Amino acid sequence: MDTKVWRIDQITKETDQAIEEASALLEQNQVVAFPTETVYGLGANAKEADAVDKIFRAKGRPSDNPLIVHIADRNQVDEYVTEVPEVAEKLLAAFTPGPLTLILKSNGTIAENVTAGLPSIGVRIPDHPVAQALLRACRLPLAAPSANKSGRPSPTTAEHVYEDLQGRIAGLLDGGPTGVGVESTVVDCTGVMPIILRPGGVTREQLEEVVGSVMVDPALASAGGDLPEDGAVDKPRAPGMKYTHYAPEAPMWLVDGDPSFMQEQIDVHLQAGDKVGIIASEELAAGLNADHINVCGSRDNLNEVAAHLYDALRSFKKSDVDIILCETFPETGVGHAIMNRLQKAATKKINQF
């Protein structure tokens, strides 16, 4: 199929036709990619299993991996869940619209292949003008994972989406680069205490300022944030808990050490005849010598690093480098989300100490 692309610099009356055309495709149970404040999502009518199945086919995504339902506002939450606990109400009030997904008990309205057969669903209210315009125009809950081939780095530009999914989806709303750069934080609110299932754009520290103590799922807390091997989680409760994600085309090693240690690792591979790519902060990159160096931001500004992370992971092709060496980052604030993604993408980690 041909993938129709609409470029939207800002929401105006002139862009109404693009939104209406994209909305019409969704109402016809087609799949349309659109920008959110985190990454680009791949949307389909969450009430129709046949429509949702097209997401899985386009991405090559395993069907036991649940999807997040995107809605326009707080009022729509009640249409799809049995209850909204007090802690969830507080989080909705504080962080939505925004990069937060809440796991709540489903009332069965959403298609079963969205929830992967679980009794709960993830709901999110995105904070992006194009996403909001689309959701209000189509008046549908949209199941929307990241708009990339399964396992690849998530897309933060329309070009990333087109590269992965051209000809596999009906439409693509190009709203320019996204802002946050890593996906939403997923918080399970179905139990006594909220549990972070996936770190993201809202940090644990921010959550705890609003609701007090927040637990971290043991799969995230163990081994300094390492996730289980594929298959270790029988029924993942949120995206990103079971399968390999975010992988660049070339093997990537995480390197935890100072600049001299990083250069030592680079030299080992250069002497072996490898072409070496680097993902590093401004501070570390300044003194390095390698074939290709991608600077993703400053260690003093982890939000900047997060915003450029997926673009950095996508920047290296198999023809460019044989191996990628990537700096590690402090696991504070959004650094938890950064390291979660890097650990999922990496094949190995080496430590100086």
From TrEMBL:
<keyword id="KW-0963">Cytoplasm</keyword>
<dbReference type="Pfam" id="PF01300">
    <property type="entry name" value="Sua5_yciO_yrdC"/>
</dbReference>
<dbReference type="InterPro" id="IPR017945">
    <property type="entry name" value="DHBP_synth_RibB-like_a/b_dom"/>
</dbReference>
<protein>
    <recommendedName>
        <fullName>Threonylcarbamoyl-AMP synthase</fullName>
        <ecNumber>2.7.7.87</ecNumber>
    </recommendedName>
</protein>
<dbReference type="InterPro" id="IPR005145">
    <property type="entry name" value="Sua5_C"/>
</dbReference>
<dbReference type="GO" id="GO:0003725">
    <property type="term" value="F:double-stranded RNA binding"/>
</dbReference>
<feature type="domain" description="YrdC-like">
    <location>
        <begin position="16"/>
        <end position="202"/>
    </location>
</feature>
<dbReference type="InterPro" id="IPR050156">
    <property type="entry name" value="TC-AMP_synthase_SUA5"/>
</dbReference>
<comment type="similarity">
    <text>Belongs to the SUA5 family.</text>
</comment>
<feature type="binding site">
    <location>
        <position position="146"/>
    </location>
    <ligand>
        <name>ATP</name>
    </ligand>
</feature>
<feature type="binding site">
    <location>
        <position position="61"/>
    </location>
    <ligand>
        <name>ATP</name>
    </ligand>
</feature>
<keyword id="KW-0808">Transferase</keyword>
<dbReference type="InterPro" id="IPR006070">
    <property type="entry name" value="Sua5-like_dom"/>
</dbReference>
<dbReference type="GO" id="GO:0008033">
    <property type="term" value="P:tRNA processing"/>
</dbReference>
<feature type="binding site">
    <location>
        <position position="38"/>
    </location>
    <ligand>
        <name>L-threonine</name>
    </ligand>
</feature>
<keyword id="KW-0067">ATP-binding</keyword>
<dbReference type="InterPro" id="IPR038385">
    <property type="entry name" value="Sua5/YwlC_C"/>
</dbReference>
<dbReference type="GO" id="GO:0005737">
    <property type="term" value="C:cytoplasm"/>
</dbReference>
<dbReference type="GO" id="GO:0005524">
    <property type="term" value="F:ATP binding"/>
</dbReference>
<feature type="binding site">
    <location>
        <position position="65"/>
    </location>
    <ligand>
        <name>ATP</name>
    </ligand>
</feature>
<keyword id="KW-0547">Nucleotide-binding</keyword>
<keyword id="KW-0819">tRNA processing</keyword>
<feature type="binding site">
    <location>
        <position position="246"/>
    </location>
    <ligand>
        <name>ATP</name>
    </ligand>
</feature>
<feature type="binding site">
    <location>
        <position position="154"/>
    </location>
    <ligand>
        <name>ATP</name>
    </ligand>
</feature>
<dbReference type="GO" id="GO:0006450">
    <property type="term" value="P:regulation of translational fidelity"/>
</dbReference>
<dbReference type="InterPro" id="IPR010923">
    <property type="entry name" value="T(6)A37_SUA5"/>
</dbReference>
<feature type="binding site">
    <location>
        <position position="70"/>
    </location>
    <ligand>
        <name>L-threonine</name>
    </ligand>
</feature>
<keyword id="KW-0548">Nucleotidyltransferase</keyword>
<dbReference type="Pfam" id="PF03481">
    <property type="entry name" value="Sua5_C"/>
</dbReference>
<feature type="binding site">
    <location>
        <position position="124"/>
    </location>
    <ligand>
        <name>L-threonine</name>
    </ligand>
</feature>
<dbReference type="GO" id="GO:0000049">
    <property type="term" value="F:tRNA binding"/>
</dbReference>
<feature type="binding site">
    <location>
        <position position="184"/>
    </location>
    <ligand>
        <name>L-threonine</name>
    </ligand>
</feature>
<comment type="function">
    <text>Required for the formation of a threonylcarbamoyl group on adenosine at position 37 (t(6)A37) in tRNAs that read codons beginning with adenine.</text>
</comment>
<feature type="binding site">
    <location>
        <position position="144"/>
    </location>
    <ligand>
        <name>ATP</name>
    </ligand>
</feature>
<dbReference type="GO" id="GO:0061710">
    <property type="term" value="F:L-threonylcarbamoyladenylate synthase"/>
</dbReference>
<feature type="binding site">
    <location>
        <position position="198"/>
    </location>
    <ligand>
        <name>ATP</name>
    </ligand>
</feature>
